[in-house]
Amino acid sequence: MKISVIGTGYVGLIQGTVLADFGHEVLCMDTDNDKIKDLQAGSIPFYEPGVQSLLHKNISANKISFTSDIKQATEHGDILFIAVGTPSEEDGSADVQQVLKAASEIGSLMNGNKVIVIKSTVPIGTGRRVADLIRSKLTERRVEFHIDFVSNPEFLREGNALQDMLRPTRVIIGTDNRDIVPLMNKLYSFYESSEVPFVITDIETAEMIKYASNAFLAVKISFINEIALIAEKAGANVLEIAAAMGMDERISPHFLQAGPGYGGSCFPKDTKAFAYTARSMGEMTYVIQAAIDANEKQKLRMVDKITAALSSDGNLHGKTIAVLGLSFKPETDDIREAPSIDIISNLIRKGAIIRAYCPGAMTQAQRRLKEVTSSVTYAKDEIDCAAGADALVIMTEWKQFLHMDLEQIRYRMSGNVLLDLRNILVRRPEVRRLFDYRPIGLK
Ligand SMILES: NC(=O)C1=CN([C@@H]2O[C@H](COP(=O)(O)OP(=O)(O)OC[C@H]3O[C@@H](n4cnc5c(N)ncnc54)[C@H](O)[C@@H]3O)[C@@H](O)[C@H]2O)C=CC1
Ligand SMILES: O=C(O)[C@H]1O[C@H](OP(=O)(O)OP(=O)(O)OC[C@H]2O[C@@H](n3ccc(=O)[nH]c3=O)[C@H](O)[C@@H]2O)[C@H](O)[C@@H](O)[C@@H]1O
């Protein structure tokens, strides 16, 4: 099939690459010329395991190409995926301007019948707005072309994107026209399991499934973070609590890892956008709003926890803190809404000197942190990062930190406090001998 992807960011590029790999002729379009030039040269603007080599393979096989010309992209595909960004506005609402612009251009340039599939996470009602906008452009142009509209939200996780794309837990098809379902089945026939359930529903329900899923996961994380706080005060163990809770299949063991708060380009943005949608309908989302507030509080609690380990009066002047892991999660270079940014900024405000190291997101973090502070020193690895530090903070659970040389780290530090905000070193027998070890939610 001929497929165009409008918006070649994270989701668009991975979707396009996988579809190309399964034999479709894919043209990816983006308004960012520099990005397109880089992609044409085979260079991807983010780190995601496996994507670069899969892309090279499909560029060489002429299965995927790139353009910044929306006319070319609109004309190429029988199926047009919209995967542009939907960032947060100041008031928490989702800014859908990129989506509406793409839709308007598609309507103005369409040269035949098309299937329009929205991958972007959009507020309830946006899909119908997009379909109406395209149809109104066709009416203005007095052309008889027909569109079928599908809301097909994406559930991949960064760092695990290819696997999630090949083995999704479910596929949501939101449409007014169920005749389109066989085409969507055929398009996604590459799934590694024939068991992948397809949920066929209306457009609004599809849009809401995406928000409800992300909001639920955010609630689950904020919930376990709260349990961790109380466990720590009570002398209980959050790891054992989470494991035992998870044995009940109604609860499930996933997404019960306490940490410094959820980050990334989606949970913070989507929970706020959903709460905004509810408010605009005259309703309050008490549970989701609590998860949002708790997540903000969680980052501040981490600042308090680090401060308390180093100072009795809340002053961190002259204290050096080594921070390991800056991305919002491991195996990605994404630092959007990473808890590290807020936590580091607050520690600096209290007078701390920060040394930082991240296996995958150094450049991105440097760029982002430069907007808030110029006083962070960047180290070349975890050992270098520890040099002269009063405390070491594990912010993100990159695999290499699991096996790092703790003797060396301790030797390089001037203090002995180790704050493990991801509980990844709990099972290392030497950790408590070497350090004043402070995990999260347990002694
Ligand atoms: N990043 C993720 O892990 C996931 C993201 N999503 C959703 O997918 C959507 C896209 O997310 P990302 O790929 O992370 O965003 P992104 O910001 O990486 O990419 C968006 C791309 O769209 C381009 N663009 C903007 N306006 C355009 C236009 N009118 N025509 C063509 N291109 C245009 C931008 O230049 C950018 O390259 C968002 O709604 C997000 O919530 C859903 C699931 C997972
Ligand atoms: O809509 C999206 O963009 C995506 O958002 C999340 O994916 P992602 O943000 O890539 O990463 P997650 O693995 O969900 O982690 C999000 C944040 O929650 C934190 N987290 C996760 C799990 C956990 O148990 N504890 C915890 O603190 C992570 O450290 C991270 O900061 C969802 O998991 C995807 O299904 C969804 O498609």
UniProtKB/TrEMBL annotation:
Substrates-to-products reaction catalysed: UDP-alpha-D-glucose + 2 NAD(+) + H2O = UDP-alpha-D-glucuronate + 2 NADH + 3 H(+)
The species this protein was found in: Cohnella suwonensis
Top EC class for this record: oxidoreductase
SUPFAM superfamilies recorded: 6-phosphogluconate dehydrogenase C-terminal domain-like (SSF48179), NAD(P)-binding Rossmann-fold domains (SSF51735), UDP-glucose/GDP-mannose dehydrogenase C-terminal domain (SSF52413)
InterPro entries: 6-PGluconate_DH-like_C_sf, NAD(P)-bd_dom_sf, UDP-Glc/GDP-Man, UDP-Glc/GDP-Man_DH_C, UDP-Glc/GDP-Man_DH_C_sf, UDP-Glc/GDP-Man_DH_dimer, UDP-Glc/GDP-Man_DH_N, UDPglc_DH_bac
Enzyme Commission number: 1.1.1.22
NCBIfam families reported for this sequence: NDP-sugDHase (TIGR03026)
Ranges of residues in domain UDP-glucose/GDP-mannose dehydrogenase C-terminal: 322-427
Protein family: Belongs to the UDP-glucose/GDP-mannose dehydrogenase family.
Pathway field: Nucleotide-sugar biosynthesis; UDP-alpha-D-glucuronate biosynthesis; UDP-alpha-D-glucuronate from UDP-alpha-D-glucose: step 1/1
Keyword NAD: yes
Gene Ontology molecular functions: oxidoreductase activity
Full protein name: UDP-glucose 6-dehydrogenase
Keyword hit for NAD: yes
Record's keyword terms, sorted: NAD, Oxidoreductase
PANTHER family: UDP-GLUCOSE 6-DEHYDROGENASE TUAD
Pfam families, alphabetized: UDPG_MGDP_dh, UDPG_MGDP_dh_C, UDPG_MGDP_dh_N
